[in-house]
Amino acid sequence: MNIRLVRPNLEMKEKAMEFRQEFFDNNEMIINGGELFDKTESYEEWVKSITANTDIETVNLNWVVTDTYFAIDEVNTIVGIIDLRHTLNHFLKDLGNCGYSVRPSKRRKGYATEMLRLLLNVANNVGLKEIHLSVERDNEPSIKTIIKNGGIYERSFEFEGEQADIYRIAL
């Protein structure tokens, strides 16, 4: 599989909006790992926000330093989105260091596993020793993705009425 992680930029707007629309057309209103990409009214403002959030000096006071990437395949299609939160605040302790989504038409092809594998290199490069990921218990594809990347079950919790688990991946 040949994908790469690329920081979103203004030149990607058309492809990014098509990517987002595919989720909505599939009745999925939440895009995990997108730093509120599913909620934004302006792509330009979203890019400005996620760029600011990459630096401790400019990060939004309600966020933690976060790197957000599109996963791009060999024909320059955005196949997924993934983020890395460098630290966990009180709100994030049950959500973990990373969220990700694969566009509906590209699922079950190994993209999530490869996206997470590539992000683990990023996490290692920024000095993290481990990352924590949360997953709803009924999300079998994501559980498999996490385990394939070395995830070890750590604990369970409830979030918005859903049972979920935290997995830890040592780097």
Question: What this model shows, in words?
Answer:
The protein is of the alpha+beta class and 171 residues long. Helices cover 27% and strands 27% of the residues. It has helices at residues 13-25, 43-52, 111-125, 140-148; strands at residues 4-6, 66-72, 78-85, 98-102, 130-136, 152-159, 162-170. A hairpin with a 2-residue loop joins strand 6 and strand 7. The mean pLDDT is 96.
Features of the shown structure:
27% strand; four-stranded antiparallel β-sheet; alpha+beta; three-stranded antiparallel β-sheet; 171 residues
Show the helix and strand layout.
Elements: E1 4-6, H1 13-25, H2 43-52, E2 66-72, E3 78-85, E4 98-102, H3 111-125, E5 130-136, H4 140-148, E6 152-159, E7 162-170
Antiparallel strand pairs: 1-2, 2-3, 3-4, 5-7, 6-7
Short characterization:
With 171 residues, the protein is α+β, with helices and mostly antiparallel strands.
Shape: globular
| DSSP, total strands | 7
Strand content: 25-35%
In spatial order, strands of the major sheet run: 1-2-3-4
- Our count of helices gives 4
Fraction of residues in helix: 25-40%
Radius of gyration: 15 Å
State mean pLDDT (0 to 100 scale).
96
The main sheet comes to: 4 strands, antiparallel
Backbone structural class: alpha+beta
Element pattern in H and E: EHHEEEHEHEE
Distance between the termini: 22 Å
Low-confidence stretches: none
